[in-house]
Amino acid sequence: MFLKIRIKMLSNLSRIVFLLPFFLIVFSLPAYAALDPEIVKQLNAETNEEKVASIKKIALLGTPEAAALLQAMADDALSFSGDTIIRMEGDRAINVATGQEIKPLPENIETLVTNNSTRRALNASLSLLKLFSPDREERIKAAKALEASADALSMPILDQVLIKESDPEIKQIITLTRASIELKNPDPAKRLAAVKSLGESNHPDVKIKLTELTDPANEPDAGVQSAAKESLASLENRLLVGESISRVFTGLSLGSVLLLAALGLAITYGVMGIINMAHGELLMVGAYATYVMQGIFRTHFPEYIDWYVLAAIPVAFFSAGLVGILLERTVIRWLYGRPLETLLTTWGLSLILIQSARVAFGPQNLEVANPIWLSGSIEAMSNVVLPLNRIIIIGFAFFVLALMWVLLNRTRLGLFVRAVTQNRAMAGCVGVPTARIDTVAFGLGSAIAGLGGVALSQIANVGPDMGQGYIVDAFMTVVLGGVGQLAGAVWAAMGLGIVTKLIEGVAGAVIAKIVVLAIIIAIIQKRPQGLFAIKGRFVD
Amino acid sequence: MKTNRTPFVIRFFAATGCKGWLAIGFFSLLTFVLVPAAHLMLPADHALHVSDYAVTLIGKVMCYAIVAVAMDLIWGFAGILSLGHGLFFALGGYAFGMYLMRSIGLDGVYKSHLTDFMVFLDWKEYPWYWTGTEHFLYAVFLVLVIPASLAFVFGYFAFRSRIKGVYFAIISQALTFAFMLLFFRNATGFGGNNGFTDFKRILGYSITAPEMRVTLFALSAFMLMFTLILGRYLMQSKFGRILTAIRDAEMRVMFLGYNPLWYKLFIWTVSAMLCAIAGALYVPQVGIINPSEMSTANSIEIAIWTAVGGRGTLVGPVIGAFLVNLSKSWFTVAFPEYWLFFLGLLFVVVTLLLPQGMVGLWQKLRHRSMR
């Protein structure tokens, strides 16, 4: 199987891209290639049936003029005078059948009214016509949309597409769509061929159609039945592979979010032993910093708006770090060695931070837009769609992890932090300024939380109490992973993410969450120091 | 060998000293006689009339005070910080709420023998765990047993593997969080998001009648006094002393031959049971119970009531619960946007400057003035 990788553009952007050639044709060509006036006239026929029939006939032409005409009708831009259908351009009246201006201006111009049934026919025809768009992306999109909704009436146009189309991928989709229409053909030989070719499909809807054919009540022909069973088996196999892949992927994605939320805690709690209940609010500070940067870019550098997220990374890092240092200097440093009191105090700090955000930015969720390079998705298989922002955030999580590892293991500061953690008195004796190291380390943990906030702003709501939702999960990750080292947090985050998503597939989101919490509680019973604890003897 | 121990009842009541009984006598006079009389007999425009709002508010805060004392028993005396007391409180409330929902009878919006939310979910009959909840005594039994057994099982496993301190706080928080998610589901059968509300009557008497309000008020007051007397007895007994010893040096207590598991487990279960009773008294007074009672924030707030009043004393938590909750009702009306600032500052100031709470401050001041 080929990995077909395409990046879908924003849908409204692509709509413009699709319509652009038509507009160009409409406005630049001096005259239309003529449409049959008899058919065009019927757009304003007495009965709905005649109108719909005329719409379908025009659609079957498959030309840009036909598309432009139908689009104009769908936009309510057509009028009529007597038997002639006109499009008004300023005060000029254009006969849509010929493309000629009508002079003098006809009398009694009335707007052509569409109703629900004509509208439905128009929309269906317009999406069929997109199959002839010059833009390949647009054709693929139209073909996919058709895959689910095509009926016998679209057969002629599909045949026409197969003749004109050169792209093998679009051809394949259309062939499969044809095949699923052919399933209803009274001729068993045609049905058999259709069933066989459908075995190649990846579309979940095809599964339902094939399942129907394995039932003797729906399919009289035994040959077709057994072929349907075979096709169904191969289809299900492929769907299952796709489903497992996307489940593991969403698990990894959740894991990376947990990791980003937990990495800062791994320093403040894991290394320094501070229970920081305000950690979620430091994530919030990072997310709000992203929001502010977005605003600054919008007003000052609108041409670089797509890169505001990159600019937000250092800003979030330092602003969350500063808040952290402030908290440590004013409050937390008085509480070292009293973990339960720290828990209550930092909870109070988190309330203050939440309320400050509410006062400064308002209580509602803020709108943080994904830049172009973070929106869209990669389609790995027909039922596996991987959103780009999730992929980038997984990468970002590992980037932050690497950053932290380097800071802790390859810098003098990291050496001091580790020394203070392992033996505070001894570190002090050899000249490490322990109090300052505490401050810097806490600031570092907070800054890492700020980076997590940047990532969260791209996938979750940004609001004053966004941090509260992560605090339990983040603590669970650190506690499960084992205190005092990074590797444990990584395994715990990814494991929790994947296990949660796997259970979610079977039992639903809430049950999955409860089961995972129960599992964590059970594991902590067995291994109170966490799964990956450093071995050693501890005495209270 | 036959020992001549003083009978339990005498020991139980003798644990509270002279001054204590005096205070309790005064408090009962206030809550059993004066407030009910002022509420029921004086006309609404009389200067000494106690309004509906005041009776409900004080009744509610007394329930909170019970929870604060229960929290103090486990945190102040045994050194175990629980972030799960909101869960036991809410479970007690839900257990009694089931009875209240059943006694709405046919007066609900849909005039069905089922509760409104079940009709709404298109359920045809009560789930099995609702069986028998139409009986008052069975509901009381559930209030006493369900949260206590949950606490027993959870505590057994946690204390057996010697989980303590922060770890215990965090996993009790996780437990509460899991239950909150569970109760938020409609399919769990406890009304989902909206929980239970719209109660009509208890034992056939209207729940909105002033007499009922006063009865619930007096019951809460009685329960609060009972909790205090029980706490005093427990803490003066040998049991309480061992508990305090476990708090201060668990290893040494173990080396002396005691198994801390049963001591901790007993006080933990008692504490959960007291919370459940408080919850059951709270729900009919407030008229609603929903899963947000189980939120993390609520459980942590309980800890701050205890801390504000003074950990390790019995009267402290009561003072703390009253101070925090009355200022909450005042703030949320007068300056709603500053309440969280105040509460947050309270957390910081109390832990940094007043580790012994109000009672500690009072003792320090008295000590200074006596010198």
Give a verbal description of the structure.
Chain A is mostly helical and 540 residues long. Chain A has 21 helices and six strands. Helix content of chain A is 67%, strand content 5%. In chain A, the strands form two sheets. Chain A has a four-stranded antiparallel β-sheet. In chain A, helix 12 crosses helix 13 (308-330). Chain B is mainly α. Chain B has 15 helices and four strands. Chain B has a two-stranded antiparallel sheet with strand order 1-4. In chain B, strands 2-3 form a two-stranded antiparallel ribbon. The model of chain B has no long low-confidence stretch (mean pLDDT 88). Chain A binds chain B through residues 275, 277, 331, 334-335, 339-341, 343-345, 347-352, 354-355, 358-359, 468, 471-472, 475-476, 479, 510, 513-514, 517-518, 520-521, 524-526, 528, 539-540, and chain B through 81, 157-158, 160-163, 165-167, 169-171, 173-175, 177-178, 181-182, 184-185, 250-251, 296-297, 300, 303-304, 307, 337, 340-341, 343-348, 350-352, 355.
Count of β-strands of chain A: 6
Q: Which residue ranges of chain B are poorly predicted, with pLDDT under 50 across at least 5 consecutive positions?
A: none
Largest interface: A-B, 40 and 43 residues
Low-confidence parts of chain A lasting 5 or more residues at pLDDT below 50?
1-32, 536-540
Class by alpha and beta content of chain A: mainly alpha
* Total beta strand runs of chain B: 4
Mean pLDDT of chain B: 88
Overall, the morphology of chain A is elongated
Give, in spatial order, the strands making up the sheet with the most strands of chain B.
Answer: 1-4
End-to-end gap of chain A: 59 Å
- Radius of gyration of chain A (CA) equals 31 Å
